[in-house]
Design goal:
This protein is α/β, with parallel strands linked by helices. It is about 40% helix and about 20% strand. It has two domains: about 150 residues, Rossmann fold, CATH 3.40.50.2300; about 150 residues, Rossmann fold (3-Layer(aba) Sandwich).
Length: about 350
């Protein structure tokens, strides 16, 4: 009997100790009331001035406006992602969010394992069967998807109209279907306004590390600028910071992605193709708080103001009024369905 009591006591102490442990990189934005939300960031982490920073802003906004208690985990190696998601789910948080398609294989089985926890994944890759038909998703999991091709179409048209060259560039991060959406939309936009323009497209690699290699981004961009390209659009995470370094060195222009990246190279950033990652994260938290969370797929395109491009005092001088008017017309045509933007190469 004494041995049994000692064993129970030891297990209780171990359980309490585990609850107190937080992985390296975890921070908590605490408030006095509200939901408990956990957000696991993607490759590159905070400070990418792009994808992850957008998710972080969405979480901070949820803390301030909705009273949510938000914990952020910034994983290191790949194995940390599943561990971070599992830790948050096991603690019974109300909502666990993975930031990036790379979480798909981890978050799907966890959602099944923890049916009482709501899950969301930004850029979730919907699983398909052998003939490409979507497989059922767990009912407690929402995929936050974007029509990146629509915003990319607009910046492609912009690059062709102001580039003063028959060549425009594209630098992608990891060579995968998600980034192909950016390239496909960009190509379509270029060719819609300049049928004989050439798009030079290159990728930084085939692993997640391709999203955090600024040196490789700079190398690819300089190569394209040397071939006569005057404008390069990147969809490469922090690798794209190297594109801006190249633009500055060559005296040419870059186009940012996911968030407004003007401050990365003032005067050398034509615009940025923005995704409302912050808004999608905020809306997922809000849905849980208001008890209207529903699993499935949520799409954010031009019509939902989920994608777009930056036009403000910083870059207004680079975009003539006639070009701005053309982009407004193209936006209206895409929303109305008069222009069908491809999402594959």
């Amino acid at each position: 009997m004494r041995r049994t009591l000692l064993l129970i006591g030891a297990l209780l102490l171990a359980h309490i100790a585990l609850l107190a442990v937080h992985p390296p990189g975890a921070t908590v934005a605490d408030t006095s009331e509200g939901l408990d939300v956990g957000i696991v960031l993607d490759v590159g982490g905070r400070g990418d001035k792009s994808f992850n920073d957008g998710a972080f802003l969405g979480g901070e906004r949820a803390a301030k406006e909705l009273g949510a208690r938000v914990r952020f985990i910034e994983p290191g190696e790949g194995s940390d992602r599943e561990a971070g998601l599992r830790l948050l789910a096991s603690e019974g948080l109300d909502l666990v969010i993975g930031v990036g398609f790379i979480f798909t294989d981890d978050i799907t089985p966890l959602a099944k394992e923890y049916p009482n926890v709501a899950f969301a994944d930004v850029d979730y890759a919907i699983p398909t069967d052998s003939v490409g038909r979507p497989l059922p998703m767990p009912t407690n999991l929402v995929a936050l998807k974007f029509r990146e091709e629509e915003g990319s179409f607009l910046v492609g048209a912009l690059a062709a109209m102001v580039g003063k060259s028959k060549k425009v560039g594209f630098v992608g991060g990891m060579d995968i279907a998600l980034i192909h959406k950016f390239e496909a939309g960009y190509r379509a936009g270029v060719r819609h306004v300049c049928a004989d323009c050439e798009v030079i497209a290159q990728y930084a690699g085939v692993t997640p590390e391709a999203f955090r290699n600024p040196g490789r981004g700079k190398e690819l961009a300089l190569s394209q600028y040397n071939q006569g390209v005057n404008v390069i659009f990147h969809a490469a995470g922090s690798t794209g910071l190297g594109v801006f370094e190249a633009a500055r060195a060559a005296g040419k222009l870059g186009i940012g992605v996911d968030a407004d990246q003007f401050n990365e190279a003032p005067g050398f950033v034509l615009t940025s193709m923005v995704k409302g990652i912050d808004e999608s994260v905020f809306q997922a938290v809000k849905a849980v708080k208001e008890k209207r969370f529903k699993g499935g797929v949520q799409q954010f395109g031009l019509a939902e103001k989920g994608v777009g491009y930056v036009y403000d005092a910083n870059n207004k001088a680079l975009i003539p009024d006639s070009v701005r008017a053309k982009l407004d017309s193209l936006t209206a045509d895409i929303i109305a369905g008069r222009i069908k933007v491809p999402s594959t190469r």
